[in-house]
Every structure is written in C-alpha cells, then in structure tokens.
Amino acid sequence: MVLSFGTLYGQSNLKQIYGYVVDTAGVNLKGVTVRMTSTSDTAVVTSSSSGYYSFKNVKGANIRVSYSMLGHKIVSKSVSFAENATSLLIPNVILEPQNSFIEDVYVVKTIPVVYTDDTIHYNMDAFKFRQNSLLEEALKQLPGIQVSRDGTVYAQGKAISSVQVDGKKFFDGDVLTATRNLPADFIYKIQVINYYGDFAKDRGIRNEEPEKIINIVLKDDSKRISFGQVTAGGGTRDRFLGSMGINRFNDGQEVSILGSVNNTNTSLFSFGSPSGGGEREKTLVDVIDFVDPTDGLNTVKSLGFNYSDQITPRTQFNTSYSYTRKENVTQGNSILRSNYMWNVIQNSESYQTNSDDNFHKMTAEFKHRFKNNDVLEIKPVFSYNRVYLGNSKDRLINNKRVSTVGTYRDTSLNKNPNLNVDLVYSKAFKKQGRKLLGSVVLNFNSHDKFEDVQDRYVLIDSSTATPKFTRVEQELYVRQNNGTDGVKASISYVEPFSPYSLLEIVYDYELTNMRTLRRVEDKLKSAEKGSLYYVDSLAVHYDYRFMSSRAGLNYQYTPNKMFRANIGFAVQPLVLSGNLPREDLYYEYANVNLVPTAGFKWRLNDEVDWSVDYIGKNNQPNFLHIIPITDNTNLQHIIVGNPELKAEFANRISTMLRKFITAKGQYFETNFAYNFILNKIVSDKKALANSTIQQTTFKNTDGYYDLKWYFLFNTPLFSENLQLDVVGNTDYYNNLAFVNDTRNLTKQFIYSQSMQLRYSWSDYFESVFNANYMLNNATYTWPYRTKITAQSLLLGAATKGYLNDYITLGAEMSQRFNEGYESSFMNNNPTIINAYIEFSFMKNRLALLRFQGYDLLDQNKNMGTYSEYIGNDLYEARNNRLGRYFMVSLNLRLQKYPKKK
Fold first, then answer.
1. Buried b or exposed e, range 504-519, using 16+ CB within 10 angstroms
2. Does the keyword Cytoplasm apply (predicted)?
3. Domain 323-896, CATH number (from 1.10.10, 2.40.170, 2.60.120, 1.25.40)
4. What is the pLDDT of residue 280?
C-alpha cells in the first residue's frame, strides 16, 4: 500500500512543458535541439517544422531548458510552475545568429550573401559603408538590389512592398520611411523574403504568387538605442526643406515620430537628396536615371507616428498614424490622335492642373496567443482622403473639315473615408501540422464628389462654301456619392495525412455592394428659369452587387527540403447584379468558373532551384465600366457604361530559374510568364458623324494575352570592389479594342536592356556607370495596318569622392537620346547634371553641411514626357517639372546608446 501510494503521488506531480522556437524574423525554426534537465529527469527533443517542441511527464524541481542550433546562440531558461499547475507554455524563444570562433581556425572573410529557400540574407558586416550612412545608401551597395531616384527598392528585379524591423512592421511597412531614416550602422542583417502573406504562412501551404519584403535585423547593441535627425535647408527659386525624426528602440519596443516639409519634390520623410523623388508608376528603368520623375511643382508636408510593443508575453501590439498634404501645380500640353476609317480626330490641348491632397491614415495590429496556443489577429486600417482638383484646358480638335476651338474647366472636391478590418483566428491542435484557420476582411468605403464643369467651344464646319460657326456652352454642377461595402471570408482546414503531405479544404466567400447617387444641375438653365433645373438623363440611382464563393481542395507534397509540389482545384460560382430602382430595371450575370492551381519548386542542388506555377482568378469590372448612364459632362468625350459586363477570368502560367554561386558572389535569375484573360473588358469607341465628338463604352471579348520575360545577373568583376548588374526585359502584348464596332488588334513589343557597373575604392572613392536601351514597337490592324517604333538610349555616370574623413564631393550626369515619337517634344535629348559638396563636423561627424546644385543645365523641366498607344489612340504628353536650383542644408544626427553596466 505504501509503494502504491508513492507511485500515485509521483504520477500526480507529472508536468508538461511546451512552446515554439523562432528566429529574429519571427520564422519558425526546425531542428533546434531542446534539452530539459531537473533534479530527477533529463530529456532531449528536436523542434518540428513549425518550431514546436514539448516535454511530457516532467518530474523533479530546478527545471532548466536550453536551446541550441548550429549557427545560433545558445539560450537557457529556468522554468517554474504556478501552484497546482500541470502544464506550462514557454513564450516564444528567439534564437539569434552566432559568429563562432573555433580554436586553430582563422576567419578570413565573412560570407556576404546566404541564399535559402525563400530568403536571401545579406550580412552587413561584409560590406563597407560610410559612417552615418542611411539604409537607402547601404542598399545601393548590395548585389541584386537597386534603388530608384524616388526611393523605390528593387530586389532581384521586383519592387519591395513592405519593410519589417526584427519581424515587426515599421510604419505599417512603408519602405521609404524605413530606408531614409534607419542608420546602416545599426543593422546586422538584411533579409529579402518571398512573402506569401500571414494567412498562407499560418496554413503552411504556398500556392499564391509571393511579394517581396525586407526584414531588418538590428545588431544586439542597437536593440536599445535612441536616434534621430534634424534637417533644414534653403535655396534659390524659393526652394526649402526641413525634417525631423526621433526613434527609440528598446528590446522590442519601438517608438518613432517623423515629420517633414519641402518644395523640392523630395519623397516623404526624407531629409533631402540632390535629386528628390516622386510617386508615378515605378519601373526598374528608373533606377539608372538621374532625372526627377515628379511632374509639376510640389509642396509636401508630412507627419507620422509609430508604436510597437510586446505588451504581454502573449500579446503583440503595433499602431501607426501618418498625415500627408501634397499641393501640386502641373502645366503641360498633349496630343490625342484617334484614327477612324474615314477620318482622323486629333485633340491638341494645353492645360494646367492644381491639386491639394490631404491624406490621413491610422493602422493598428493586435496579435494574441491564448494559453491553448490559439492565435487571434486583428488589423484595423482607417484612412481619410480629402482632395481638391482644378483642371483648366485650352483645346483645338480637328476632324477633316470640322473643328472645335474652346476651353474646358473642371473643379471638384472629393472626400473619401475608408475603413478596413482584417481578422484572423488560428486554432491549435496537438497533432503536428493540423490547422484550422478563419479569416474575415470587412471594408467600408464612401466617396463624396462635388464638381463644377464648364465646357465652352465654337464648332467650325468648313464643308460648305461659307464656313458655319456654332457656339456651344455647358455649365453643370454634379453631386455624387459612391459607397462600397464588402466582406471577404475564408476558412481553411489543413490535415497532414503523411509525414510529407498536407491536404487543405478551403472555402472563400466574397460579397461587394456598390451604390451611387448622382444629381446633375444645368446651371445655365437654372439661371434662365430662376430655379434649380436638374438633368434627368444624367441622374443616377444605381445599386450593384458582386458575389462569389469558392470551394476547393489543395494538396502539397514536400518529401524533403529540395522539392515542394502543390496541386489544387476549386469551383467558383459568381453573380454580378445591378438595379436601377427609378427605371425599375434589373441586370444579372451568373457564371461558374473551374479554377485549377498547380506548381512545384525543385531545388536541384544547394545553388540552383526551378519553379513552375499556374494561378487563376476573377477580376470584377470597376464602377466606371458598369454605371448605366450616358455621361456627357465632357461634351467631346462621352462615356456610356455597360451594366451587363461580365467578370474577367485571368490565367497566369510562370516559371522561374535561379542560380546562386556563393563562392563567386554571383546570382542569376530568369522568369517567363504567360497571361491570358477570358471575357477581357475592353473599350468600344465610335466617332459621331460630322463632328469632333467621340463616344466610348465597354464590352467583353476573348483573345487577350501577354508574354513577359526578364533576366538579371549580378557578379563581381576581377574583385569585389567592381560589381556588375545586368537586367533585361521583354514584354509582348496582344491587346484588343473595338472601333466603330470593328475588332481592333494592337500588338505591342517592348524590349529593355540595362547594365550597371559599380566601383568602390576603399573609403576614398565610389562610382557607378549606367546604360539602358528601350524599344517600343506597336502595330495596329484598324483602320489599316499601322506601325510605330520609338527608341530610347540612356547613358549615365555618378561619382563620389572622399577628400578626407570630413569632406565629400559628388557629381552625377545622365544623357538620354529619344527618337521615333510622333511629337517633336518627345524626341528631345536632355542632359542632367547634379553636383554637391558635404562637410562633416562635430563629434563622430554627427553634423553634415551640404551645398548642392540640381539640374545645372536646367533641362529636367522638359523631361515629363509620356506616350501611350492603345486601340486606335496615339497619346503623347509633356508636363513641366522642377528645374535648376541651388541649395544649402544642415543635417544633425542624434544618437544615444544605453550606459554600459
């Protein structure tokens, strides 16, 4: 009886310990050796692929758990149980990288780049940077990474979409805010990650196309530090800039306050650079140009706040707020030539656009892990946009013997509040790999628009012996409210039915409700009648709904680290419906799509991998396509919506091959993609007889496809001081449109080849040489076969020299050659030259005095040129940009490290 009692008493005191092991980026670590010791027991386990480990039937007191993995620091923890507790969840254990020194082994070189499955690691200690360099300058030195003039970061040819610091978003992931505020001296490692999203990460199944993000791993002595900067500058032509930034990092707690104001077209939160930055559509070609890519003259003000903290061992909280105000004045001229069978309509315009854009954005992220290991994430985002727009156009439109001369004025006030809430719940199971996840996204959007339109012109008809003159005037006041409410929900159950296989059952639901109310007052008739006169034909009360559900199965097979394959199939019924209550009209379109997905990734060896993927998805028409009215607020360009449009079904097949040669520091990547779209939404244009008026509506058609191929290669030449980057792009578009009810095929071929050569000589000299060639060839089939070929060649060079530790000289120059464009202003060949000198002083060179001259030849102001060839339209335009100015600025960097004990 005594022995039995002792046995039962011992069993009643058995305990369980479990938890997760992650790296500094928050990625779960597999293969970590976890050792548990106590006064009565010793046990060793290895973490699973999800980083999970557990010890059952733990006996004894003075319990300690240690974690070890090759290449990482060893972590040890003492464990104590609460009174009467039988289980304990240890908070996530973070293993940091470890530089080990082994006796009789000499480390002669730090490996600069390490390539893993979905991550490229850049060891910053292996690269040389000037003291006090910001992250943006440091990124320019890393192989495979380019930074454009407006601050956009490209890694392996793709734009970086988000930035994290130690696994947490910094200012909601804003790339520019991070790269132009974080000092490079504080950073231990840069990780470029193929990110499939939080939902895919939790599921463990990767069957979507990833985006590229950057995770910044801080040095150990920089995890508790205060830093910031203050900048002020003034120059000729009333140029000015000022900025302020204060940041505090404290072992996972992050607080940042940033603000800036400038009229130098400089990107937000930047303390200023010789070239500035902009916000147009970004391409990799911009990386090697030294022009300022922002149209018009801008005054930008911004203010931001970011807070992140582990408020409890199980709860992570992040929040940020930002406000920007951008005032823009743009002047320009354009031609739009529309080619019809019997006539050519050419619209020549000179215009000025004024805008005042105020944008508020507040985000939050709450993540909590319950005691049973379930996880809840809540991410609300609220934004409010208030924009004033003013357009003033003088235009001349010709069509054979009919022409119009007149003016068009359009002023509007737009208010756009938006709320988006993302909720994710992940259910934990004891069985490794089994997962149940639910996701709900709620969106509430409203858009109020108040618009004044004045259209005045004289119609000149020269088809008769005596020209006929007709004066046309229109003044409208438009008040419109658009509302969009949507919900997206997804539930996923993942079951491992073998050590290498995962089977997922997934159901997705999407519902979008749109509504619009529009009233249009004819101000001329209101003045004539002495009372408000509304145009019934332009009034709208329209409700639209898009509803889609998708049920499918996904299977993923991962026999080892070298191979992963997935295949899936889904059935997706969808319904598009529209309702005009006033006219008692109802439109509906229903369809069922069969959506297969498939792909594999095969790592042929440690340095080569190959992947193939297929993805299909629906694209619903936007509101302007379907609104069922004849919109003639612009009398020369009438828009007619088509409420019977179907949703597009897009298919994408892509393959990618990557090769890393670590010993030589080389990287090669090539990608080929084929996209084809069923029920493609295209324009359908008509020219009204004996006039300069064009009317556009929309319809569905098949036959659209495009082919896209690119490659990139970077390698050191002769030594690591000389780096070569080569990038090539080839795009082919088989585009469709309708002109006078006739199908028009546009075949467009775009080829680009660029090279960048970077040289650095110790701490004395840096230089970069660029070359880019671009060919744009477009062929039309209607009204007759037409071919347009435009070419552009860009050559550039930049250099920076350090006379000593305190004086820096820099200059950059680019020359562009254009030919083949329709308009003479498109074929200009500008030369851009920038130069500056910097003086560093104070302790640790924390102060920087800068004298700079921007666009010394005053030619950037003519660089805002654009061309577009779609359907039967040829469009070419030139906008003004910021020209030559000189500026002096002072930058003070602030740093405070914790006192050493």
1. bebebebebebbbebb
2. no
3. 2.40.170
4. 30
